[in-house]
Specification:
By secondary structure, the protein is an alpha+beta fold. The chain contains 24 helices and 15 strands. It starts with 10 loop residues before the first helix and ends in an 8-residue tail after the last helix.
Length: about 475
């Protein structure tokens, strides 16, 4: 039997062994921490299963470590307790047995054995345990041969996959997430179980599904997960807007680019260069308006006119339906979807100072993220075309830097406020104030005047004079 005591270097393990000896109790480290020992991945979440009361055992260990009682967080509903120690979160739970009702993923929990606890685990690679009591300290308990599945890079359920996924459909998303994060394949029988039970995902809260989607998007190659979601039938259930990108229409022998595969390629390229979750979401949704705007014109071919505007309008509704944050994160994604064609349009034409100013004004501090998204959006297999675009994007980047240093247009704040216009011309709130402010902004963006107070003030006086307004001396 394999002994892993040399791998249990965190000081919590020896302390648990001491408390086990004192109390005559057996405890085990289980789940992801054990898995990650073999994958040589850092893991600061340590799950402890106790053959007894997990909460009272947690208090005993905390007392042994002189951790104040108030630092032990107890979740009575789940029978768990947790505290932080030496840069790790240690969670304790009594060994349990679970059974499920068809209409809920919340289990009926009863006291169980270690075998019961391992049987309820989602995948074999997460069902391994290491003994922490003195007589067997460091011994691996691996009833489902999870170590072999780690070596073969396989995701497999310990028990019947249909039962496993029916009991807790969130495990469907976890299987796809682990396959994506670890670059593992899903066992054939397990995958059939996902296909058979995929509709059960409808009973899972959107928030829990989003947690798994976020982890997929933050992996090194998110497309693995999206291809698995597509192949298993999960995609239209949880992301119907992305499923709608699939397929190619052909008229008169002319087909358009396959939008789904283009999209996940863009997502991969962004994820490779950024850990900004919301930028990766923007990459996923950047062409979401294309199905609604797709049109075939005989003299031109397939067009998707204004898909960026349609897509941006869709974002709030999508976020609301997915129960995603309706705050600045949503606004950020919406903005990038709206602007994602602008830099490419710039390189098609002459890169004028005015166009660059307007792009800076509209993108603000998100300009660098927008440029990264636009560069990732080039997925052509024509190397000459790709190199030409990337070269032109470098010109745009240089121009952005030059204009920004000169005109300071990120997060543009007008040098002349509406309050000042009211004061100078002794005006109540009225449309003329908005007209003057807009004229000043447009003059700055067109390079007619500098982005500073004095030239803007003089320009204000000229614009006001055209409207028959003159300064009112107090």
């Amino acid at each position: 039997m394999q002994n892993l005591c040399k791998k249990l270097t965190h000081p919590i393990f020896q302390c648990i062994a001491d408390v086990c000896q004192e109390k005559g109790i057996k405890a085990f480290v289980v789940g992801g921490f054990v898995r990650d020992i073999f994958l040589q991945r850092e893991n600061h979440d340590i799950d402890i299963v106790v053959l007894g009361n997990g909460i009272s055992f947690a208090y005993a260990v905390a007392d042994h470590l002189h951790i104040p009682v108030e630092q032990v967080v107890v979740y009575k509903t789940y029978g768990t307790a947790m505290f932080k120690f030496h840069n790790a979160e240690i969670e304790f739970v009594g060994a349990r047995k679970e059974s499920y009702r068809k209409d809920s993923r919340n289990p009926i929990v009863t006291i169980g054995t270690l075998e019961d606890d391992q049987n309820r685990r989602d995948f074999t690679i997460n069902a391994m345990a290491i003994a922490l009591y003195k007589e067997a300290f460091g011994e691996l308990i691996d009833p489902f041969d999870g170590l072999a599945d780690i070596k073969s890079k396989t995701i497999r359920t310990p028990l019947d996959p249909i039962v496993t996924f029916s009991d807790d459909p969130l495990r469907i998303m976890r299987a796809i997430r682990f396959a994506t994060q670890l670059h593992f394949s899903i066992d054939e029988n397990t995958f059939k179980g996902i296909v058979t039970t995929s509709n059960r995902l409808n009973i899972i809260s959107k928030e829990r599904i989003n947690e798994e989607l976020n982890k997929i998007l933050l992996s090194s190659k998110p497309s693995i997960g999206f291809l698995l979601m597509d192949k298993s039938g999960v995609l239209p259930i949880i992301l119907p807007w992305i499923a709608a990108l699939k397929g190619v229409d052909i008229i008169d022998g002319h087909g358009h680019k396959e939008i789904f595969y283009h999209t996940i390629e863009v997502v991969d390229k962004v994820a490779m260069n950024s850990s900004n979750l919301w930028l990766i979401w923007a990459a996923l949704f950047h062409d979401v308006g294309k199905p609604a705007t797709k049109k075939y014109v005989k003299t031109i071919g397939w067009t998707f006119h204004q898909h960026e505007f349609v897509g941006a309008k869709m974002i709030p509704k999508i976020f609301r339906q997915m129960k995603m944050p309706m705050n600045e994160k949503m606004e950020y994604v919406k903005k990038l979807v709206l602007l994602h064609l602008r830099p490419a349009a710039l390189v098609e034409d002459e890169v004028t100072d005015s166009a660059v100013r307007r792009l800076l004004f509209d993108a603000g501090d998100d300009i660098d993220d927008l440029m990264l998204l636009c560069e990732a959006d080039i997925t052509s297999k024509n190397k000459f075309k790709v190199n030409r675009y990337l070269h032109n994007f470098e010109i745009v980047r240089g121009k952005l830097k030059e204009i920004e240093e000169k005109d300071r247009l990120r997060n543009f704040q007008p040098p002349i406020s509406g309050e000042l216009i009211m004061e100078v011309f002794n005006l109540p709130p009225c449309r003329e104030i908005g007209i003057i402010k807009t004229a000043i902004r447009e003059a700055i963006l067109d390079g007619v005047i500098a982005n500073e107070y004095e030239s803007s003030y003089q320009f204000m006086l000229k614009e006001a004079a055209k409207m028959g307004l003159s300064p009112q001396n107090k």
